[in-house]
Amino acid sequence: MVTKQRKKFPFYIVVFLAPAVIIYTIIMIYPLLASLGLSFFSRTSDNQYVFAGFSNYVTLFTDSFYMPRILGALKNNVIFSLIHLVIQNAIALLLAALVASKGRLRNFYRTVIFMPTVLSFVIIGFVWNLILNPLWGVSESILQAVNLGYLFKPWLGLPDTALITVSLISVWQFMGIPMILLYASLIGIPEELMEAANVDGANGWQSFWKIKFPLLLPTVGVVMILTFVGNFNAFDLIYTMKGANAGPEFATDILGTLFYRTFFGQQLQLGNINMGATVAAVMFLIILTGVLFYVFFWQRRVQNYEM
Amino acid sequence: MRKYKVFALMLVLVLAFAACTPANTPANAPAEDAPMDDAPAGEEVTITIESWRNDDLTIWQDTIIPAFEAHYPNINVVFAPGTPAEYNGVLNTKLEGGSAGDLITCRPFDASLALYEKGYLANLNDIEGLSNFSDVAKSAWITDDGQEVFCVPMASVIHGFFYNKDAFNEVGVEEPQTVQEFFDVLEAIKADGTYIPLAMGTADTWEAATMGFQNIGPNYWKGEEGRTALIAGDQKYTDDAYVETWKQLAAWRDFMPDGFEAVKYPDAQQLFTLGKAAIYPTGSWEIFTFEKDASFELGVFKPPVENAGDTCYISDHTDIAMGMNAATQHPEAVKTFLEWMTTEEFASLYSNALPGFFTLSDHNVSLTDPLAQEFMNWRNECESTIRNSYAILSRGEPNLENELWRLSAAVINGSVTPEEAAAEIQAGLDSWYEPAK
């Protein structure tokens, strides 16, 4: 059946949408496309920009100088991200379950655990640099007090441990966000379900994993994707603690620091706008892939229960 | 011990805040625009200086400009500094827009060279006073062929070692002259156990290259001889001179504080000024802070040479200069000012106002600060050179200076041997640099 009389297009919708669309286009979409565009150009010796197709990408992944850097940064970024996905989110789930249970100090703990999240990177970096400082840091004294002084190492300065140390500091800082999201979902689960489970004879362990956890899965998905996006965009903490060179020997170099060095330059190294934009485009593609995967696989598979 | 660490931690915090406060004050001071001249128009002109040295605002306003205006009452000079981090960007924008000041403070090497090549800085070959400057002094503000000078050199910083005189007296050691004596001193201090022999860390990586490699290296590669040979392609970083430098750095490891891999530059400074360490490898720019913070008597010695009596070489690194905006309305006044900057009077005023920053001219200036004077005396005893990675060789990728930071730190950490570091540096350089034939 075809309706002859089409409804008039409601033009006021355009008026309402325009401010947001215009502002978003100007400050988000245009810069994103412009920056992607930059990665397809290169600069000739007489300062002219010429279209270069995918040659910047080829350089990035084959050049004897760029290849070890981008592969190293990718590898470090994956480790950095895995530590967050596994350790941060597992502990966050545990803490969320604890603060959601009945206890006298739960409000206090909820606040304290969330606190590092609202602190600035600079403060976090400075404080942890001092705590772990081999000259006057308290970590060595604390270890000595429990007769474990021999375990102390300048963790931030050793290539084998620097990345893990920085990752764990970042985990500590951001723990509050997944915790608060999971906590909000947990307290949203109706009491009746738990009571019914009790009546059926489920113990605490069973009712958590069989009832609460499946109901949490949509939130777990959101937490995972937020962590993933945050990790592949990370830069601040490593820049604050280890500088743009991400030492020792690029052990803490992730895509964000590689991008910064390439785009803006470092000390005597002049910035290379086009190669920097190429690194940024790679970051964008990785994050885009992750988000698409989340939208098309996770979000569709997970059932949303009516409660 | 634990109490001490807590105390030290608090002290560091307090010092950090104390150090921040005065440094910020001038930064917040309003960057004055050129004040309107109420004197009758005609003969009087006002020229403005662009600079990143907002820390020096009072020195220019109270000391240097009045001295100049006493000679040339018709020329008013205004010092209008910005902040260091933004200087290059803001200056470029101002020059492109035609609103930059008449005098431009020059960063060393490629940043200023680029401005000259774009035509923003004027050629200064006709400034007669430039004959008061050596080739090394001019090397940072000259075209690659060495023909056209575009900034009048102002100041350099000199590398060397600070030491705690009380510690040396207690342990009973003297200022070392040779490399052997240097390590004997370090051994003696280590055996004594009261002091950490060498206050240094590798966490920030640049200390290893700047305060290590470029500090002691000139004695191995014979200063300018080695530096120019690297540019000409006659020497390579894999040559003995460079490998030996890294070998000495690797030997420093045993005398550095525990956990030096995670010790940062400010940590090492505090370690030394708190009197916990005996020797601190660095440069003259520390004079001001160290004299303020250290409660013991400070001494300095120059980088040790191989055998007693060898010619010594020091890194006398060109840091700051002054050029002329090619679009200035008052070229004569600007040139008068630049000409005055080559005189002994300016050299003396500037070097005394900023101990640790030394005039690059050949004038025999005497300094009131004894440590600064001692640094400057080395110029008469030794040959001057600049850091070998700064001119020309850091233009490509991988960037030589960044690689020197990373690998010098790795050599001290022991994760790379001196030979491996040398091979990696040279391979990186070879990948883009072709010496001019």
Q: Give me the secondary-structure category of chain B.
A: alpha/beta
CA radius of gyration of chain A is 25 Å
Determine the CATH superfamily of the largest domain in chain B: Periplasmic binding protein-like II
The H/E string of chain B reads HEHEHEHHEHHEHHHHHEHEEHHEHEHH
Question: Could you say how many structural domains of chain B there are in total?
Answer: 3
Tally of alpha and pi helices of chain B: 18
Largest sheet of chain A: 2 strands, antiparallel
Structurally, the number of domains of chain A stands at 1
What is the CATH topology of the largest domain in chain B? Answer: D-Maltodextrin-Binding Protein, domain 2
As a percent range, the share of helical residues of chain A equals 55-70%
Query: Which word captures the global form of chain B?
Result: globular
- Summed over residues and divided by their number, the pLDDT of chain B gives a mean of 87
SS class of chain A: mainly alpha
Instruction: Give the low-pLDDT segments of chain B.
Output: 14-42
Kindly report the name of the CATH homologous superfamily of chain A. MetI-like
Proportion in β-strands of chain A: under 5%
